[in-house]
UniProtKB/TrEMBL annotation:
<dbReference type="GO" id="GO:0008233">
    <property type="term" value="F:peptidase activity"/>
</dbReference>
<keyword id="KW-0647">Proteasome</keyword>
<dbReference type="InterPro" id="IPR029055">
    <property type="entry name" value="Ntn_hydrolases_N"/>
</dbReference>
<dbReference type="GO" id="GO:0005737">
    <property type="term" value="C:cytoplasm"/>
</dbReference>
<dbReference type="Pfam" id="PF00227">
    <property type="entry name" value="Proteasome"/>
</dbReference>
<dbReference type="InterPro" id="IPR023333">
    <property type="entry name" value="Proteasome_suB-type"/>
</dbReference>
<keyword id="KW-0378">Hydrolase</keyword>
<dbReference type="InterPro" id="IPR001353">
    <property type="entry name" value="Proteasome_sua/b"/>
</dbReference>
<keyword id="KW-0645">Protease</keyword>
<protein>
    <submittedName>
        <fullName>Proteasome subunit beta type 9</fullName>
    </submittedName>
</protein>
<keyword id="KW-0963">Cytoplasm</keyword>
<dbReference type="GO" id="GO:0005839">
    <property type="term" value="C:proteasome core complex"/>
</dbReference>
<dbReference type="GO" id="GO:0051603">
    <property type="term" value="P:proteolysis involved in protein catabolic process"/>
</dbReference>
<dbReference type="InterPro" id="IPR016050">
    <property type="entry name" value="Proteasome_bsu_CS"/>
</dbReference>
<dbReference type="GO" id="GO:0005634">
    <property type="term" value="C:nucleus"/>
</dbReference>
Amino acid sequence: MEKRFMDSQIKGVSTGTTILAVTFNGGVIIGSDSRASIGGYYVSSKTINKLIQVHDRIFCCIAGSLADAQAVTKAAKFQISFHSIQMESPPLVKATASVLRELCYNNKEELQAGFITAGWDRKKGPQVYTVGPGRYVTQSAVHHRRIRQHIHLRLRRRQIQT
């Protein structure tokens, strides 16, 4: 199996998930592939939506275990909607990323998922955050994630203190 994995890298065969988010003056661009694979070698579906709307102007790009990611985003949607009603204003993108961070950290032993949270708010405009499996949130103008067996970030980033 190790040789097969190395051969796929040499030949340039794509395995895993790719999600991307980029900020520009007017907003955020997000994207992903639409394949769902089992074990990295078998494509089980070619039409999976990996871009989830969490609030009016905030989206999550999901990668890793689809079931885990969907459960976390569903819980985040509920918490963000509740927070928005309490505050009587739309949620901040950073607050949404923080909610996802807490959900991921509190369930870190069970989760196999990663997220990019992207959106626009009145306070800071367009923003992109990566929420990792640990207790960190990073911000950058460009985020790109490639998922194989473990989550790897391939981008320049700066640590955000939240």
